[in-house]
């Protein structure tokens, strides 16, 4: 009996599955594989979000989420106040373009959400429109992405855009942990014009689990800890 065949077969299976996941969810993309659920979120000092998504086709996912934003606002008289803005929303993510190769891919994603926002600087709730776009390229060793997201209501215009890139230390099989180093530069726009924030991340991917932790800096000053996560099932 050829025992090496039975040992190599699982390896080939996991390698193939790893490539399948590369084209679907392994890099925290906004659309997973068909009939999958994704839970994802971001936790930081001034911004946090949590989402649950269902991918019903190879190109489109729908879901709902909550976001929380806080910042310092200075009036024309020089008085500074702490402001908060929370949103509950429903959104759809659609893969507009996809260019696959054997061990790499490039994608264009469009995102649109609508929700209700509440803040401590106005009464009641307001409708919030939440568009977004993501461009990315990735292999099993290299990653690069550009992201832009906006939140628009009567009380607040807020945008976030970022450029990130990084590398994996080595290729792994599907059932092994894979570490990455990622560097991201981001900036806020709209009513929250802010300094450029630079964040080095250490990222880990295992099967359909994605988690990364980073230390953002603005003008050389630490902005605390930021954590992103995603699990697809």
**First-to-last CA distance:** 36 Å
The poorly predicted ranges are 1-26
Corresponding CATH architecture:
Beta Barrel
**β content, as a range?**
over 45%
Number of helices: 1
The overall pLDDT, averaged over residues, is 88
Identify the quaternary structure here. single chain
Examine the coordinates and then state which fold CATH places here, giving the name of the CATH topology: Porin
What would you note in describing this structure?
- By secondary structure, the chain is mainly β.
- The chain has one domain (3-232): Beta Barrel (Porin).
- Helix content is 9%, strand content 63%.
- The protein has one helix at residues 3-22; strands spanning 36-43, 47-55, 60-74, 80-100, 104-119, 126-139, 142-152, 157-168, 178-190, 197-206, 209-214, 217-218, 221-222, 226-232.
- A 12-stranded antiparallel beta barrel has the order 1-2-3-4-5-6-7-8-9-10-11-14.
- A hairpin with a 4-residue loop joins strand 7 and strand 8 (157-168).
Q: Key features?
A:
233 residues, mainly beta, Porin, twelve-stranded antiparallel beta barrel, 1 helix, 14 strands, 9% helix, 63% strand, disordered N terminus
Describe the structure in brief:
The protein has one helix at 3-22, and strands at residues 36-43, 47-55, 60-74, 80-100, 104-119, 126-139, 142-152, 157-168, 178-190, 197-206, 209-214, 217-218, 221-222, 226-232. With 233 residues, the chain is mainly beta. The protein has a 12-stranded antiparallel beta barrel.
């Amino acid at each position: 009996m050829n025992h090496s065949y039975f040992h190599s077969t699982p390896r080939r299976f996991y390698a193939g599955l790893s490539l399948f996941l590369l084209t679907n969810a392994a890099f925290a993309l906004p659309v997973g594989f068909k009939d999958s659920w994704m839970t994802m979120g971001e936790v930081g000092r001034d911004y946090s979000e949590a989402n649950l998504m269902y991918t019903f086709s190879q190109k489109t996912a729908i879901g709902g989420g909550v976001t929380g934003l806080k910042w310092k606002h200075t009036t024309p008289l020089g008085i500074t106040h702490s402001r908060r803005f929370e949103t509950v929303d429903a959104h759809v993510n659609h893969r507009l373009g996809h260019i696959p190769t054997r061990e790499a891919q490039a994608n264009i994603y469009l995102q649109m959400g609508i929700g209700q926002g509440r803040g401590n600087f106005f009464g009641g709730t307001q409708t919030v429109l939440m568009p977004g776009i993501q461009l990315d390229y990735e292999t099993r060793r290299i990653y690069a992405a550009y992201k832009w997201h906006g939140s628009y209501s009567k009380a607040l215009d807020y945008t976030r855009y970022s450029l990130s890139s990084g590398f994996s230390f080595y290729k792994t099989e599907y059932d092994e942990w894979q570490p990455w180093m990622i560097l991201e530069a981001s900036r806020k726009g709209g009513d929250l014009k802010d300094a450029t924030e630079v964040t080095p991340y250490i990222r880990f991917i295992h099967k359909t689990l994605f988690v990364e932790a980073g230390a953002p800096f603005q003008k050389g000053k630490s902005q605390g800890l930021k954590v992103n996560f995603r699990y697809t099932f």
